[in-house]
């Protein structure tokens, strides 16, 4: 398996060329997928971005991605909302370099902000139609959300959601904690899971979110064709 490796920003960043595309590996963890022929990943990022379809087209204008990585979520958003403003926050310089050189990041028209997510949330006051939280730290089986994200970061991300917008959070071992925080900030909560992945996506908003309605919308969008048979959606009371 051909690979390129570099050490930047305190992390081991590796790009693997595999059948059908490229993988971004950060500290031993699968962090992004790139297929030059399709924005779809057939993976977690499809579920993370899927809630955008719950928004009417007129509300798909401003997006924030916390934990930009190689740009997998940004590529999907750009395919679904060609004229949208996308802001991507990424701490690791090496990840940004790999995303630009190997994942076509600069072609997506993303406002790339190299910063710690906590600093960005303290300073940024813009509102977004969809906020994606894909922030993790740690290596391999120890990958997790940072403590600051659970203490106040998820609530801070919720505060950046525009009226009628959605916050989509990627979780692993902290699903219950994040779910509790989201319930404190939003009346509607949806859980998305992909078969064979331990990630649990939690989407929350002020407007009703229906798993059945979102699945119908996903069936109408060809980008999600490969992931739909393995995707479960459940509205949480």
Briefly say what this structure is.
With 237 residues, this protein is α/β, with parallel strands linked by helices.
**Text of the CATH class:** Alpha Beta
Number of DSSP strand runs: 12
User: Kindly state the mean pLDDT as a whole number?
Assistant: 92
Unreliable sequence segments: 1-10
CATH superfamily heading:
Vaccinia Virus protein VP39
Structural shape: globular
Number of helices: 7
Work out the helicity level.
Answer: 25-40%
Structural class: alpha/beta
Describe the main β-sheet briefly.
Answer: 8 strands, mixed
Question: What multimeric state do the chains show?
Answer: single chain
Going by CATH, the architecture would be 3-Layer(aba) Sandwich
Radius of gyration using CA atoms only:
16 Å
Domain count:
1
Q: State which percent range the strand residues make up.
A: 25-35%
Biggest sheet, strands in spatial order?
7-6-5-8-9-11-10-12
């Amino acid at each position: 398996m051909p690979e390129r490796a570099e050490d930047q920003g305190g992390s081991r960043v590796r790009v693997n060329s595999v059948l059908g595309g490229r993988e971004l590996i950060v500290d031993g963890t699968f962090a992004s997928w790139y297929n030059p022929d399709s924005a779809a990943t057939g993976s977690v990022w499809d579920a993370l971005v899927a809630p955008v379809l719950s928004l009417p087209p007129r509300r798909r204008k401003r997006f924030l991605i916390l934990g930009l990585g190689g740009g997998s979520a940004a590529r999907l958003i750009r395919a679904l909302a060609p004229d949208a403003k996308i802001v991507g926050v990424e701490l690791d310089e090496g990840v940004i370099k790999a995303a630009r050189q190997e994942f076509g990041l600069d072609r997506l028209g993303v406002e790339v902000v190299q910063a710690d997510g906590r600093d960005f949330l303290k300073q940024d006051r813009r509102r977004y139609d969809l906020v994606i939280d894909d922030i993790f730290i740690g290596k391999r089986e120890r990958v997790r959300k940072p403590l600051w994200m659970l203490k106040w970061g998820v609530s801070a991300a919720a505060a950046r959601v525009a009226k009628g917008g959605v916050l989509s959070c990627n979780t692993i071992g902290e699903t219950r904690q994040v779910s509790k925080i989201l319930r404190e900030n939003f009346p509607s909560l949806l859980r998305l899971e992909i078969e064979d992945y331990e990630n649990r996506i939690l989407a929350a908003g002020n407007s009703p979110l229906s798993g059945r309605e979102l699945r119908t919308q996903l069936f109408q969008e060809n980008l999600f064709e490969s992931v739909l048979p393995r995707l479960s959606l459940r509205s949480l009371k």
